[in-house]
Amino acid sequence: MASSDPAAPAAPAAAAPDTVKILIAGGFGVGKTTMVGSVSEIAPLRTEEPLTAAGLGVDDLDGIAEKDATTVALDFGRITIGPELVLYLFGTPGQQRFWFMWNDLAIGALGAVVLIDVRRPESSFAAVDFFERRGIPFVIGVNGFHGLHPYTPEEVREALALPERAQVLLCDARERESCRDVLVALIDQLIATH
Question: Per-residue pLDDT tens for 79-98?
Answer without folding.
Answer: 998 888 899 999 998 777 77
